[in-house]
Amino acid sequence: MDYHLKIQEEPVTVSVMKGDDNTTRISIGDRIYTVTGSRVDRHHLHLTVDGKRGDVFVGPNGSGKHIVIEGQSHVVEDMDHPGLSARSRKKATGIPDTVTPPMPSVVAAVLIEKGGTVVKGQGVVVVSAMKMETTLVAPYAGTVTAVKIAVGDKVNPGDVLVDIEQKTETDESVG
Amino acid sequence: MDYHLKIQEEPVTVSVMKGDDNTTRISIGDRIYTVTGSRVDRHHLHLTVDGKRGDVFVGPNGSGKHIVIEGQSHVVEDMDHPGLSARSRKKATGIPDTVTPPMPSVVAAVLIEKGGTVVKGQGVVVVSAMKMETTLVAPYAGTVTAVKIAVGDKVNPGDVLVDIEQKTETDESVG
Amino acid sequence: MFKKILIANRGEIARRVMATCREMGIATVAVYSDADEHAAHVLYADEAVHIGGPEPSASYLNIDSIIAAVKQTGADAVHPGYGFLSENGDFAERCERENITFIGPPSHVIRSLGDKITARKIMEKGGVPIAPGMTRPCLDVEEMAKEAEKAGYPILIKASAGGGGKGIRVVRESSELKDAFASAVREAEAAFGDGSVYMEKYFETVRHVEIQILADRFGHVVHVLERECSVQRRHQKIIEESPSPAVTPSLRTRMGHAAIAAAKAAGYVNAGTVEFLLAPDLSFYFLEVNARLQVEHPVTEMITGIDLVRHQILIAAGQRLSLRQEDIEGRGHAIECRIYAEDPENDFFPSPGTITCIKEPSGPGIRNDCGVYSGVEVPVYYDPIISKLIVHGETREYAIERMVKALKDYVILGVRTPVPFMIDVLESEAFQSGEIYTHFIRTHFPDWKPDTRTHDLALIAWVMDELTGNQRAAAGPDSNRIPMPYETLGGWRMA
Amino acid sequence: MFKKILIANRGEIARRVMATCREMGIATVAVYSDADEHAAHVLYADEAVHIGGPEPSASYLNIDSIIAAVKQTGADAVHPGYGFLSENGDFAERCERENITFIGPPSHVIRSLGDKITARKIMEKGGVPIAPGMTRPCLDVEEMAKEAEKAGYPILIKASAGGGGKGIRVVRESSELKDAFASAVREAEAAFGDGSVYMEKYFETVRHVEIQILADRFGHVVHVLERECSVQRRHQKIIEESPSPAVTPSLRTRMGHAAIAAAKAAGYVNAGTVEFLLAPDLSFYFLEVNARLQVEHPVTEMITGIDLVRHQILIAAGQRLSLRQEDIEGRGHAIECRIYAEDPENDFFPSPGTITCIKEPSGPGIRNDCGVYSGVEVPVYYDPIISKLIVHGETREYAIERMVKALKDYVILGVRTPVPFMIDVLESEAFQSGEIYTHFIRTHFPDWKPDTRTHDLALIAWVMDELTGNQRAAAGPDSNRIPMPYETLGGWRMA
């Protein structure tokens, strides 16, 4: 049986076969592992992988799983069953494509008004989480068509806080 | 609603009434307590009793509950729903009325044979638990009609290890 | 002695203070906001009082509400922890007026040490070395230029009213001074309504070393050795240790004496910390006094065996300090890692959420001061600290090994933590060499990424969790039970 | 240094040894019996080998099986822990022959110290004070009568082959000697096939004080201070502490020197303990050498900051001992409580079973060396120790307070433990006075019963558990979640 998983944004195919003696054989790329395991409690599995034992801890993370092993922390998602947690993340460019907070937070300031115009990269909303303020910026130039939040609101990654109608003809980022 | 409970072998009636503001009123003897509580996890309740807070921990104990509070350990049973755990305990006389181990243990030695006679207080079986050996004695004089265990068997409180047919006419303990 | 203490704080520090109160037989009162009804510190207290909405200003910074809670519960004293109202002169004064013992220094001491220029003046007068620079507010760039020449560039412009990093400018050469001065004044004016600034010498490569002090009401002051706090990110300490790899016995004595002098100059009472900058030539300069218990106080407790909170309480109750300087000796090496709810893979942004599972490391030489439990929510409103993991070892090398192992044993599911980052820092040669300056993280870990060595294992874990019936195990009444291997694979084999 | 160590033990001590191995980067191998497939020490190891049936003789005492496990896994060394094979000369010798490093003294040292009369002779020759009495086996009651007159009554008759309390008789006056001698010889003959006995002076009121030692292969021996182990029940230590309330600095030096002399006389290598009887007049007498790590070693680690297991491993690897006597200094006070699975309300009978829930105390100055977890079964076959709770405090008084609090925070459901009894002992004036002799429990707690002050609270807990839907919470997928008070009472209110 094949699973199409994503670990730390990296897609990986994992093949699972029955092995001998109640073992499971798991192949990832060209690596094949012989695995046995038991569940110690809801979140705690004890695995033996090619003879070496170890504890792994698994909890829910949206539609994926949060997995902690020897202090390392991973989020693994099932791409065949993508869920609500596939939220937009900050891209490598540093500017996400919507106005959404990077973490669960509270709106500390709204810097624009409905109907106003913004340039790309202009601060539009300040959110605060755990004493740390972050200014969310406009992903492109345009006109603010909706401000969906007010100061004090709790907001989450994926929530679009401000709608901006893109100014298409004179895209400043060209060239 | 009344519960008929037993704590540390002591029967107690506990009356429970709804109080004001989501509180519960619980009376035990002439003492009345105002209680609120929430469940932190399966075994952990956090209670507020007359304004004082505290954690209590509750787990199963046969048909009763094992309750730990501030280092104190209690077994509480519901006398309206007595269960399997109401096992014979060592009596104040020091001699139980059947040949049964005081704790889960392993049979270390069998000191009698089927058909043999025993006097009251004679050692019949030695059981061992956690490096501690205990000799179980005959509760009365009589003839051994059955030896139900062998060396190495795991046995539990309540299991009758040896059947002894009581010698009724000349009860040595009379007088 | 006090019968009941109210702890005007939350999280791990509230629990830590309560732990000592419970040992001393003193009843404890927690306060909590709407966001903290089920917080760990509330469960741990004998009584708890709701004090307001989730925003700190409505609750943990709400002086009226906290004073009302003290009166309602009949507490004798208030322990402010760190942060929130711990260095708020108004709160300390209010307690004084209401005849509630504030477990900390007198309000006038908090106020004078809270003002940067006043503190510098007190220290200069007390003979404590301060960084070359000014000890009066300045509104004239020419005056500052003269002082800057004396101190030598680079220099630092700071707002006198100070706080939160506002109004601070590094000036590397004289040509930059005028613009930097103007912009610092503007920012200070905007932030504090007071544009006055002053100037100190700026040290590029410097350690942050602080000295713990204890002072009773009778003028007896001791220092309780140093802590090395140079490993910082965004000006926030993340790893602290004691002793400092840079501090020699004779330097320790000199810095200790300077800290005692600082405490005496300020009229300090209770536990406090004198922060110094330590230059590579081992010259040191007064930075500020933290007039409260520090976050990192456990490293001092681990190497000295002294319970600082107990001494805070004894001092506040008017007792004489039982410790003599010659009794205070460090032994071995202690390290603290601050475990925040933050995502090291997402620029260390806060990562609030519900802790679905926490397993704390334990064993020889390990202490975890923890403010959460499995099932609790880490709210978005407060400092992201979940716990402080502290270890003690015979030597620095052994302590590092112990911390790495403890971090690997630490399990937190539901929120992200910097544990993987901490492991890499502790295992780095740079950290192990002890050559640690405040730019350590910037220099050695400018663009950290988690390694991928456990990726295959994580994928295997995902699969095995699926196969061993996560859903069924969670739903059944026996989910605590360990299934046998055969059983655990049963569901899958039949599928 | 070793690459891989097999730990020939189980439970808390196996985990404790593995913790240090992991810090040192040494891989660990667990061994387990049929009863321990899911035991904590098995989960904690890098590899695990099944070695036999549940009876100790089939597994943890099965030399062939353990040697086979070493070879199968390629381990370099074996750590025996305490109990089981730790003082078995045959096992140590087998390791020597098979070129496996045994982490402990050489087999001939184990053998000579294991024989009571040989050990007494070695000590007498080495100038170590021994209790007045005989140093040769005796089969003649007249000979013993003469020696008994010299030593003075009461005396103790012991079997030379010794062990397990068999063949021991206290004789209080000369008229009792003949019968006691005869019955001791009979019992010794029956138990060991060797009826020879010997005699020592018996002390009615005496402390059990032991000295930790460390000795490398190069003849360098240090002592690591004393432990007070007088609080015993059925000749089993239950509470240990360091320093001993009775030991003055000069006595400590004298006892330390005696312990070093004992180690040197025996040719001792690795960690060991020299047990002494300490009389009220502060005279002390050699009792025996425990040629292994002691159960109570953590109290020494807590007051000295030294990891004894690390030094055991370093010594076994042939390294020179890095500790000098002048570096070893105690600080503060440490106490250990042994947490057994036993029922204090049922004559402290063993209480094996499944641990449905364990919550370990944690925080400043608290260490819990634990061998179980929630859901594991405590098997009937082995020593009932679940964990050792150890605390450190600035003074004995503070350490006692800390231990009481830690005991109150300790939750173990599913098996009974002596925690309620321990709390009463620690809170007693008798214990707090420090006047502790080996008959302490018999004298002060002859017929202990748990108090009933929490009975009402327990009944309330029973009711609230019922009302807040224990069954539903356990069955639901969200049982980790905290229900709001309204919800928790909902089920009942609708009923």
Mean pLDDT of chain C: 92
Domain count of chain A = 2
- Class derived from helix and strand content of chain A: mainly beta
CATH first level of the largest domain in chain C: which class?
A: Alpha Beta
Span between termini of chain C? 67 Å
Q: Report the order of strands and helices of chain A.
A: EEEEEEEEEEEEEEE
Structural class of chain C: alpha+beta
Specify the CATH architecture of the largest domain in chain C: 2-Layer Sandwich
SS summary, helix count of chain C = 18
Residues in helices of chain A, as a percent range? under 10%
> What does the largest sheet of chain C look like?
8 strands, antiparallel
Q: Approximately what portion of the residues of chain C adopt beta-strand conformation?
A: 15-25%
Binned strand content of chain A: over 45%
Q: How would you summarize this macromolecular structure in one to three sentences?
A:
Chain A has 175 residues and is mostly beta strands.
Structural summary, described in words:
The complex is a heterotetramer, with two copies of chain A (about 180 residues) and two copies of chain C (about 500 residues). Chain A has two domains: about 1-85, 2-Layer Sandwich (Glycoprotein, Type 4 Pilin), CATH 3.30.700; about 95-175, Beta Barrel (OB fold (Dihydrolipoamide Acetyltransferase, E2P)), CATH 2.40.50. Chain A is about 0% helix and about 55% strand. Chain A contains no helices and 15 strands. Chain A has strands spanning about 1-5, 10-20, 25-30, 30-40, 45-50, 50-60, 65-70, 70-80, 105-110, 115-120, 125-130, 130-135, 140-145, 155, 160-165. Chain A has an eight-stranded antiparallel β-barrel with strand order 1-2-3-4-5-6-7-8. Chain A has a four-stranded antiparallel beta sheet with strand order 12-11-9-14, with no helix packed on it. Chain A is elongated, with a radius of gyration of 22 Å. The termini of chain A are far apart. By secondary structure, chain C is α+β, with helices and mostly antiparallel strands. Helices cover about 35% and strands about 25% of the residues of chain C. In chain C, the strands form six sheets. Chain C has an eight-stranded antiparallel beta sheet with strand order 13-12-9-10-11-14-21-19, with helices on both faces. The longest helix of chain C is centred in the middle third of the chain and has 18 residues, at about 250-265. The termini of chain C are far apart. Classes of the chains: A mainly beta (about 180), C alpha+beta (about 500). Chains A and C meet through strand 1, strand 2, strand 3, strand 4 and strand 5 of A and strand 15, strand 16, helix 12, strand 22 and helix 13 of C.
